[in-house]
Batch of 2 targets.
Target 1
Amino acid sequence: MGLNVLVVGAVALGPKVACRVKRLLPSAQITMIEKDCRFSYGGCGIPYFVSGDVQNIEGLCSTSAHTLRDELFFETAKGVAIRPRTEAVAINRKAKTVTVRDLRNGSDTTELPYDKLVLATGAEPMVPPIPGADLPGVSVVSNLEHAAYIKEKIARGDVNRAVVIGAGAIGLEMAEALADMWEVETTLVEMADQLLPQAIGPDMSLIVQHHMTAKGIAVRLSDVVTRIIGDPETGVTAVETRTTRIPCDMVILAVGVRPNGRLAAEAGLAVGRHGGVIVDQRLRTSDPDIYAGGDCIEMPHLVSGERVPMPLGSLANRQGRVIGTNIAGGQARFDGTVGSFCIKVFDMGIAKAGLTARQAAEAGFDPVYSVVAQADRAHFYPSHAIMYVKLIADRATRRVLGIEALGPNGDAVKARVDAVAALLPYRADVAAVCNLEVAYAPPFASAMDIVNNAANVLDNILMGYNDPIDVTEFVERFKEGQTKVVDVRGAPESKKFREKYGEDRWINIPQNELAGRIAEVPKDQPVCLICDTGPRSYEAQRILQANGIATTKNIQGGYGMLSRTNPDF
Amino acid sequence: MGLNVLVVGAVALGPKVACRVKRLLPSAQITMIEKDCRFSYGGCGIPYFVSGDVQNIEGLCSTSAHTLRDELFFETAKGVAIRPRTEAVAINRKAKTVTVRDLRNGSDTTELPYDKLVLATGAEPMVPPIPGADLPGVSVVSNLEHAAYIKEKIARGDVNRAVVIGAGAIGLEMAEALADMWEVETTLVEMADQLLPQAIGPDMSLIVQHHMTAKGIAVRLSDVVTRIIGDPETGVTAVETRTTRIPCDMVILAVGVRPNGRLAAEAGLAVGRHGGVIVDQRLRTSDPDIYAGGDCIEMPHLVSGERVPMPLGSLANRQGRVIGTNIAGGQARFDGTVGSFCIKVFDMGIAKAGLTARQAAEAGFDPVYSVVAQADRAHFYPSHAIMYVKLIADRATRRVLGIEALGPNGDAVKARVDAVAALLPYRADVAAVCNLEVAYAPPFASAMDIVNNAANVLDNILMGYNDPIDVTEFVERFKEGQTKVVDVRGAPESKKFREKYGEDRWINIPQNELAGRIAEVPKDQPVCLICDTGPRSYEAQRILQANGIATTKNIQGGYGMLSRTNPDF
């Protein structure tokens, strides 16, 4: 008899562990149990199945060679047994068995023995404690059953108006799927005052928000759903928030997930403050014969140092390999996460790694950041487009804490974030990103690439050469009459603003004329400097500083950032 | 009087230094001299100007805000003086002056004093010592004059057939520019036995070669140009190689560049074995008042440890900022290069960082590599395309030495290479790439991304689980009848090959049936295993090993790699 490995949960991490162990240790006997009838699927593909990008549910359950990953596949191709519709009820660590219930025939339980046990119990979607959350037409999005339910209902033509609750990744992806492909009138409701509050800063999120609004999604921020209204027979008819009532035929709950650590906790294994199983670098729980990984664990955040859940299929896969190696007698490690993230929202790619400025402050850092607008390839190359990068560092140590990026070319956005993400575990400082050797050719990058420039600007800010103001703060101050603008672009670019806001509030002095026109810079009020994307206003600020005017603020990301975050400015 | 800074050379690094110093130290007096009449241009954009992607030469000489970077621009916007058509003849380090010659009025020389001198003398294109290299219609591609000459000649309709000598980046880009936009019948001649010999391995280069051939470029490898034939009045008519004669109206010489360290050497500054100026981490030469950077220096290669020239506009820009900071009293460093590189060749993006396997062996490592074919995003996401990644590590230390990648989406290719490039200075090992936290969402990546899988495969090879064979070596062995193939795909995919090579040489046993059909595996000859892209043949190899058959070889990158490198196989 070979090693007996029991895997609880068969979506992402479970199958990875099972197949890896079997490859390394062919004598092992491996059984996966899964409470659902579907298993080994790409859960992150659900929004693309709902939208129709992925036509059949089998597309999410097949290998890249188009083989369906069903029970026969696991048995014959992988040598792994799988028991779907089987729930783990309890772990008996002393006896080294798991009590399981066969959900197909009711309440019968049996004991499955193990030498090594793997907990791949995933996460549970949170359901807000509001009336009506159980009405027909209200659904979370956490497995293929939900996906099939939602898509069937839409495909039948039953859904004209939908409300998506929660503006994290799944909320945004589902909103797009509904509105874009099915032309469902979609409202997105979020408690926080911005989209993607865990992923990006408020300035970057404004760009996403305007993009979604332009695509027809109604976005309601800082609002809380209090009730879902409808009939237990015919289903949901409206969502009531603190401020309004939104008629709808479908409600998608996407308010987040919680690690499913119940089984572990009940067995006396260590569980963290988020409810996730606690593991070491080998991904062993507090019982050395029990491993855990994927959405059900907490892991070290390599920037903040805190233990966090990070429910991503990518991490589950990498952790699965580590567990498989270790069960087979190897010495693989998983040290933690830097929180890399990306998402496509209509025609925009958004990515981040590390901490946002707010998260950095919460973690005890003193965050300073740059915001840079620049072409995603050589500005003379025809297909270039402006992208936006925000780079965050700790003031005292200059350690890079995070990066956020967005733009029309998601691969180009991701390229910049992935390169900086790779540095984060090494506690790299800003200078490392100034010199970060991203590959260069005009069709793919600038000679001084946006990611280098983001670091250069941040370095200038940390050195006190560049005295920046956030575009959001600028807009507030300007609207309240607390600052004037010196626009250092040419006369044509500044014309619209001079006419709208008056020549005395929006003063035009082209940067190349500034040295000779210092006297025209207002002294009666603070001054903010603006150009297209930032370099000329920085140059202007240096000229003013050299001439004894040290109080100006340089608008980060320039007019590019202003126009994208405040299109009606 | 402020600090007097003299900059010799005003293309990429020179202007960056000048402007940076002026911003940090407004009191500085900065003069750039440039022997050509054009300056501050994007030299890497020349192929795109020739092709017509960039319409006017001014496009390469303008800022992203469309301002021409002429003498007035540098004077008024940057506060920097520039003297074009002025050549530095000698450095008098004791007197701290540079003897310069005004090329507009002949031989007059004057002495320009400096407090700090910057050498940005660039590189010189190599011209092969063959008869006819000076004929009309023969041109190197190293400045805008060459670019204008080439484009004018083509635009006049004078060029029907061209020969490009040298298959490095510039050779490939120029070949594309000529053939794609102008439909010039183009032949590429290269001395080495592969395209891009400095950048990628022979297997990867075969894919590029077939792509270029399919686009109409005639590729002649392992051939040497012995003579260029033509008339001193009417110009070139043919290129003669060791093996053939190619009629043509234009010849592009793209055989490489050499650091221009003459001025430095003559002044007694330390110069390396490649002829480049030797600098320290502050980019100071052996004279602390003289800095150098860009194409004229040698810099540490952070993987090989050797001092190498790395003539790239991107490095020149980053080094320019470092020099500017240091001249202004700061403490910036440039530690070296990891040799990041990318190029677009028609509809293909190619990128690399670190060392190729050959370069690694030359540098004293014991290189082992994986080759992985995988979709560049989730395989169920509609717009996915297969890309190829080669990951190279040192056998004993498992240190990652290099990565090569190519595919139809250049941004996606670059994303993978840039992320690994970021790790190279930290001497990361293969495990770091197994767990490399590239951002994941189905539109942009796989849950187990290709870059992670490349490391997983390499780890399996290093552990002895995966016993690989290079596709090139396999083809040789198979053609010589030294190996049989067990094709572990389904019957339909293997049909063509069974018919072509015979059922006894190309045996089909689907992977999921292999465990029960071990007896059918040939024992009389070595066996190579193949599937679509590699995972199933690996799985098959493990099954065979578990059944006592330990001699099979697994074809790296599977049929994907075989079909792309050997389309007529």
Target 2
Amino acid sequence: MQIVIHQTDHTIGNFTQIYKYIENLTRSEDFQDNIHIFPETFLSGYPLQDLVLQKTFIRQYHELLQALRDLFAKIKLSDKTALLVGGLRYEFKDNADIPSNIYNVIYEVTKKSNFNDIYTKCLLPDYDIFDESKYYTPGSAPCIWSHAGCDFGLLICEDMWHSEQYAVNPLQMLMDEANGKELNGIINFSASPWNIDKEEKRIKRASEISRVFKTPFYYVNKVGAEDEIIFDGASFVVNETQVIAKAKSFKSDLMKVEIAKKSKIENLGVAPVGANSWESLFGPHIEKINGKMSLKKLSDDKLDAILGALNLGLQDYARKCGMNKFLVALSGGIDSALVLTLVKLFLKPGQEVEAIYMPSKFSASLSWEISDKLCKNLGIKLHNLPIKFLHSSVQNLFNDNLDPLEGLADENIQSRLRGSLLFARSNQTGAMVINTSNKSELAVGYSTLYGDSVGAISLLGDLYKSEVFALARHINKNFSDIIPVEVIERPPSAELRADQKDEDSLPPYETLDMILESYLSYRYDLPDLLNLGLNKTEVERVIKLILNSEYKRQQFCPILKLKDKSFGFGRRVPICKKVDFNLG
Amino acid sequence: MQIVIHQTDHTIGNFTQIYKYIENLTRSEDFQDNIHIFPETFLSGYPLQDLVLQKTFIRQYHELLQALRDLFAKIKLSDKTALLVGGLRYEFKDNADIPSNIYNVIYEVTKKSNFNDIYTKCLLPDYDIFDESKYYTPGSAPCIWSHAGCDFGLLICEDMWHSEQYAVNPLQMLMDEANGKELNGIINFSASPWNIDKEEKRIKRASEISRVFKTPFYYVNKVGAEDEIIFDGASFVVNETQVIAKAKSFKSDLMKVEIAKKSKIENLGVAPVGANSWESLFGPHIEKINGKMSLKKLSDDKLDAILGALNLGLQDYARKCGMNKFLVALSGGIDSALVLTLVKLFLKPGQEVEAIYMPSKFSASLSWEISDKLCKNLGIKLHNLPIKFLHSSVQNLFNDNLDPLEGLADENIQSRLRGSLLFARSNQTGAMVINTSNKSELAVGYSTLYGDSVGAISLLGDLYKSEVFALARHINKNFSDIIPVEVIERPPSAELRADQKDEDSLPPYETLDMILESYLSYRYDLPDLLNLGLNKTEVERVIKLILNSEYKRQQFCPILKLKDKSFGFGRRVPICKKVDFNLG
């Protein structure tokens, strides 16, 4: 008898696919005599948001449950065979229409049990992207699951992260329940979103719990991207300090692991307080480098993990939306060059990517040379669609009918004409436009709404400009300068007027990124930033830009989430507010 | 001694303004010897979302609290004078940076008390737009406030709406606490968002509670719009079944009311269960008209209230964003004609509105005539900015460099060119572009992303097309056909190809709106809709359109919320999902 960890990726609402996965499993040779464990909410998908309330979803979910019960009613399971499957349990009011309670549970399937729920998630996270209290009712009882002579303590995702933030302590409840008994291990069923620090935190916490119980910790995690949220899988088993098995990151996987011998559980004492995930939102990724506060540098390992995450994020979004063509607008700058390179590197058989370059009279010849060289390096056809004539047509239209286009109006129209042409091409070919904005420009609103900020999904929206450069250099190291070095070395420019440079309007990116990361973590106030040696005028200007550009971010596409604190669903700020209140 | 109800509207984060309001009050002749009551979270603003965690916000909020305490330390209050002010109370962890608990409280100011919190909100709503569990910690104790011989039971907003949905019952706690005592009334401090059914529900519930206690119910509500959310004020006092005082709707107001004599509270029994606000999300506004299920008709009173709400919503958004110019693109259709009319009707002294008409070769001459007539009726200058030439320039560009523009690509480019021109004008004049989409087209994605869907804020995004017509007719009744009747009578068309009509792609709006309202309420499944006598093919098509257009709605501007269930922050649905899961 082994534990089989099913690290799966299914589209939300694709109940047929989920049924088939289980049906196929029942026919596989590994099926009988093993314990099969599945991620949290395997049956329903996650995060569902309001779908969980929609009558159609509820009906189909229950049809799935019934179909699975019917399936197992016909199958003769051996004494040893078991499935532990994450799902939802609904309770309804009298009128049977409105769910009164929805629980996040583990269903058990054995010879004697056909989808009975045995454990309910106790800790419902509400920070950042999480809204679980909005939809779910927490459990309040621990579970030691006994099967074929084995005993396991069960936890669901956040339950392992007990901290002072929560009134209940499921880990302590499990420790108290286990006291005096013998366990073969702890199993945690997760749908745990990835970010660059998440995997090591999980293993550290699991190891901490394993050491307390002196028994292995089995961690099964969902894989796959759901809009902006990336689930990395990376399921693992840790025995005290040693990771004894590890599944793939960013890919579906199936992993068989031995069941450890029983350990006697006694004198456990007080549950160790977990690293508080909520608090990590307040921890800016900054550090002192050469005596100066800077954004924390991303290690090669982390850059590789980011590549894995972006790959899964893009590909799952495309697959789940039914798209297999991509379209990127090249400007001759680093962001679009990196995005095109990423899409090309991530391309699967049968998929295509196309690039368009749309120069204006302000576009340097270097911009064309870079774009041309990049596309040659990548083996991608580059379309040239100059906007000079269109731009002057618009200028004439305004001259003749309204007022002459000048300044910002004349800059932005170029960007918006490009956005329009880009989406015209997208309409022609059915290609998905990949956004090319980075986190720094998103933060300060240094982009044109409906112009360069357009797209279906953003790959770089959670990477500061200096991290965009780092990722480009990292790729060049591994792919022999596939991104022309000229684009890494030239000073960034929007090229919307003559001799424009980003640094005319913004602090140098190194400083800007440091201010942004500090401020966006919630934790740094103006006086704190000045204490770090930053310039008051500069800091005030940046904070004002952040506060004033909320309206642009609220119309932005989903951004693949790579950090603790990202723009998107997990960061919610009103548009209307007094903008200089932080500058007192 | 009277109760003075302060129905106020302040910009979030404008602490100076809030301080001055109180400072001015202390100098007013009504100040001494009265009880001044303020809305929930008067001191901090609401909804704050993540601002509540931002260190700068927290610091400045505490500076305000300190400044107010300093102010009252210097003022000699009479025995009778009191203020009850909604605000936040923060608790911090050891490191003093991260708030460990944030409470929504009522602060008391009297001769002996200088901003002491006396009551904490017990029920934290999490449905729809609400996320209060995400940020706040609930209270658990009732409060009977005694002052100068008077006694009042206190509640904050949702506390009065006890229902089965909540584990605690603050109304019951207050009833138990009051038992055997004498009360002068119940005071509810609210920041209660408006929707078309909300006011009557509030009064009904307050009256129900007043009848139980046999003492008046004082309801003080915030006024003002915060992005999409509109707070209507409409503070009131109800004594059993009689409304004895009522403040203005959609405007700041100050209302003095008498304090009732004491009532002996005894034998109250069990608290009446409230109308469950959460459940109302599941209640579609549909009814049987002439034997056929239809969208519920809006009465004249409700249409008037919608006008008040839209007026406040637009004006507060503009004021809080510092804008005083508006810009509307006219198409010759009903939506843009109504939007322009609304903006003009809402205009304040010193504000301006401008209209642009951007015809293509598919624009009927009637579209120009309607736009021209409307602008003459409204006294607005109409700019004509034909896109014919630009459109053919783009066609040539694609012909010469890529593939000829055809079909959808050729339709959408017209809409996007208009979006670009519109925002170029906005950049020129600093005017705010008002979006012209309606709820029906938003629901089915019958609009062009970055094209006709652009704008800073949407006035009609919570009104179905048939309600748009009803509102236009309502205005025409009161303003002698200010909107040309031709636009109400012509069949709706996007005019992006020859002889295009909305009904070529969509069911008649009457049917469409009925399906949309039913489905969007969560409560109607395909079989339910078929039971209502609707056509299966039609219903399936509409549901598919809703599910497939989520990506467009996620890039949409804030929509002024008029209904229980609206697109926007309160409706959260993943983009990636299997789209035909509802059609099983």
